[in-house]
C-alpha cells in the first residue's frame, strides 16, 4: 500500500474505500506504518472529516484489531452505557448493578480520566483491593455469575484504538467527531453488545460544550451503532454543574453507595444523578423490548433501585473483583479520608445561580485528584463534597462546598472553589438534567452525506 497517497487523498477531502482503511489499520497495528504517517493521516481527518461509510470502516477495523469478548448464549441481553465524561459523573457505578438486577448482563469496559473529567476506573481504584485489570476469561465469568463487571480494556482488546488515541492525544486531534465515534464504538462493539445507551455531556465542563456539537456527536454515534447491529440511543445531558453533590474519586464512590441505599431513596441533592441512572436503565429496557412503554420502564427501574437489591449486587461485584468489603465499609464510615477539610461558606444570602463544573474540575485536578498527564500520580481521597447547586437557597455563612485535601492544598484552592459559585437575589429557573434523547430514527433523519468534522 502507498500510504502517502492515502494521506494526500484525505488531505484533499477525497473519500477512501473501506478496504484501504482496513489495510491501513492492519499495517499500523503490525508496526509496518510509522507513527509520523499515521499522525499526518489523523490531522487530515481532523480537518477534512470522514463520511459515515469511512467512519464505519475505521470503527470495524479497530474493533477487529484485537480480541473480542465472546459470551455464551443467555436469555439476559448484553448491554452497556458510555459517557463522554464530566465532573462528578458517577452514573456507571450505581447503574451497572441496577441493570444486573433488571435482568441484563453488563460487561462495562471503562477508562481512566485525563484532564478535568474523572475516569470510572480511577474511582474504583479508591476501593481497597478492587481489581480493575482482569483477563478476558475472568470478565466473562463475572458477567455470567454476577451479571455485571466494571473493568479496564484488556491488553489485546482493540489495540489499534490504544495506539491511535495515544497519537491523537499528543497531536491535537482528539476533538474530531469521526475519530471520537470510532474510538468509543470500536470498544463497545468488541464487547458483543446487543444494546448501548450513550450519555453525551453538554455544558461548561463537557467535551462538547455547545448543544449543536453535542447533538452532532450523539447523532453520529447512534447512526453508526445501529448500522453495526447494536441498538443504540443517546441522552444529551447537562454538565454546567457537577452531577450530584460530590466530585473526586472516593467521594463519588460514597455518593454512588448513597444512591443505591434504599433508606436514602429520597435523599436530597442527588436527584439529578438518580434521574440519569433511572433513565439509562429505562431506555435499555425499551431498546431490548423488555417493555414498550418508557414510563413503565422508568417505574420498573425506580422500584428496583429503591429495593436494596442493586446495593447487594454492588457488594457482590466488589467481592468478585477482589475488594476487601470490611475495609471498604470502614472507609465508608469515615467523614473524610483526606488529611483535612475546609468549608467554603456563602458570602451572602440568596439563591445559588452558578456552580461552575469546569472550575471545580480544574481544582480537583490541581490537588492531585486528576491527571495533568498520563504519568500523574492520583490521590484518590481528595475532592469536593456537599456542593450547593443552582436553585438552592442559602444564608450568609452556609456551606457551599467542602474541600478534601492536604491542609496546605485545601487552603491554596479555597478561593478558587468559592469563585465557582454565584449567589443571586432570585432563584434561577431550573435547567433540565436531560436535554434531549437521540434515537435511531432521529439520527437517520439528521444524517446527510457530508463528512463529520469537529
Outline the fold blueprint.
Layout (H helix, E strand, L loop, with lengths): L2 H9 L6 H12 L5 H14 L3 H12 L15 E5 L8 H10 L4 E5 L9 H5 L11 H11 L1 E5 L6 H13 L5 H14 L4 E8 L8 H17 L3 E8 L10 H12 L10 H17 L6 H12 L3 H12 L4 H8 L7 E6 L4 E6 L1 H13 L13 E3 L7 E2 L4 E7 L1 H13 L1 E4 L9 E5 L1 H7 L8
Helix pairs in contact: 1-3, 2-4, 3-8, 4-9, 5-12, 5-14, 9-10, 10-18, 12-13, 16-17
Task: Outline the structure in words.
- The chain is an alpha/beta fold.
- It has 3 domains: 3-63, Up-down Bundle (Transferase, Pyrimidine Nucleoside Phosphorylase, Chain A, domain 3), CATH 1.20.970; 79-156 and 193-329 and 434-446, Nucleoside phosphorylase/phosphoribosyltransferase catalytic domain (Pyrimidine Nucleoside Phosphorylase, Chain A, domain 2); 339-424, Pyrimidine nucleoside phosphorylase-like, C-terminal domain (Aldehyde Oxidoreductase, domain 3), CATH 3.90.1170.
- Helices cover 46% and strands 14% of the residues.
- It contains 18 helices and 12 strands.
- It has helices at residues 3-11, 18-29, 35-48, 52-63, 92-101, 120-124, 136-146, 159-171, 177-190, 211-227, 249-260, 271-287, 294-305, 309-320, 325-332, 357-369, 407-419, 440-446, and strands at residues 79-83, 106-110, 148-152, 195-202, 231-238, 340-345, 350-355, 383-385, 393-394, 399-405, 421-424, 434-438.
- It has a 4-stranded mixed β-sheet, sandwiched between helices.
- Strand 4 (195-202), helix 10 (211-227) and strand 5 form a beta-alpha-beta unit.
- Helix 9 crosses helix 10 (211-227) and helix 16 packs antiparallel against helix 17.
- The protein is globular, with a radius of gyration of 22 Å.
- Residues 444-450 have low confidence and may be disordered.
Amino acid at each position: 500500500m502507498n500510504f502517502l497517497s492515502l494521506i494526500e487523498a484525505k488531505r484533499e477531502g477525497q473519500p477512501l474505500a473501506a478496504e484501504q482503511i482496513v489495510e491501513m489499520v492492519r499495517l499500523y497495528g503490525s508496526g509496518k506504518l510509522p507513527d509520523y504517517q499515521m499522525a499526518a493521516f489523523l490531522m487530515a481527518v481532523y480537518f477534512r472529516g470522514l463520511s459515515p461509510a469511512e467512519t464505519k470502516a475505521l470503527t470495524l477495523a479497530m474493533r477487529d484489531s484485537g480480541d473480542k469478548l465472546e459470551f455464551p448464549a443467555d436469555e439476559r441481553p448484553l448491554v452497556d452505557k458510555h459517557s463522554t465524561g464530566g465532573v462528578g459523573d458517577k452514573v456507571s457505578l450505581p447503574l451497572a448493578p441496577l441493570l444486573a438486577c433488571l435482568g441484563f448482563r453488563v460487561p462495562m469496559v471503562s477508562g481512566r480520566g485525563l484532564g478535568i473529567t474523572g475516569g470510572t476506573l480511577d474511582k474504583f481504584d479508591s476501593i481497597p483491593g478492587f481489581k480493575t485489570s482482569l483477563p478476558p476469561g475472568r470478565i466473562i465469568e463475572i458477567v455470567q455469575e454476577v451479571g455485571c463487571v466494571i473493568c479496564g480494556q484488556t491488553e489485546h482488546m482493540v489495540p489499534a484504538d490504544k495506539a491511535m488515541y495515544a497519537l491523537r492525544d499528543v497531536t491535537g486531534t482528539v476533538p474530531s467527531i469521526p475519530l471520537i465515534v470510532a474510538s468509543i464504538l470500536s470498544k463497545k462493539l468488541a464487547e458483543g453488545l446487543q444494546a448501548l445507551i450513550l450519555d453525551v455531556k453538554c455544558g461548561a465542563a463537557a467535551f462538547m460544550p455547545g448543544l449543536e456539537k453535542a447533538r452532532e456527536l450523539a447523532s453520529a454515534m447512534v447512526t453508526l451503532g445501529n448500522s453495526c447491529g447494536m441498538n443504540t440511543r443517546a441522552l444529551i445531558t447537562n454538565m454546567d454543574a457537577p452531577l450530584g453533590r460530590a466530585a473526586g474519586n472516593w467521594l463519588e464512590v460514597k455518593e454512588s453507595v448513597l444512591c443505591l441505599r434504599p433508606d436514602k431513596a429520597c435523599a436530597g441533592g442527588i436527584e439529578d444523578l438518580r434521574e440519569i441512572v433511572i433513565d439509562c436503565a429505562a431506555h435499555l429496557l425499551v431498546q431490548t423490548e423488555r417493555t414498550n412503554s418508557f414510563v413503565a420502564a422508568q417505574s420498573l427501574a425506580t422500584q428496583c433501585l429503591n429495593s436494596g437489591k442493586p446495593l447487594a449486587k454492588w457488594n457482590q461485584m466488589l467481592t468478585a473483583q477482589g475488594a476487601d468489603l470490611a475495609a471498604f465499609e470502614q472507609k465508608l464510615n469515615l467523614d473524610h479520608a483526606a488529611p483535612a477539610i475546609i468549608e467554603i461558606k456563602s458570602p451572602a444570602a440568596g439563591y445559588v445561580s452558578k456552580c461552575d463544573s469546569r472550575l471545580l474540575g480544574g481544582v480537583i485536578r490541581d490537588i492531585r485528584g486528576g491527571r495533568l498527564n498520563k504519568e500523574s500520580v492520583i490521590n484518590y481521597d481528595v475532592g469536593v463534597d456537599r456542593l450547593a447547586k443552582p436553585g438552592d437557597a442559602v444564608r450568609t455563612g452556609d456551606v457551599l462546598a467542602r474541600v478534601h485535601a492536604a491542609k496546605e492544598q485545601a487552603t491554596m484552592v479555597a478561593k478558587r472553589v468559592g469563585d465557582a459559585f454565584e449567589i443571586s437575589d432570585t432563584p434561577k429557573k431550573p435547567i433540565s438534567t436531560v436535554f434531549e434523547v437521540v434515537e435511531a430514527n432521529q439520527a437517520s433523519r439528521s444524517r446527510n452525506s457530508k463528512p463529520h468534522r469537529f
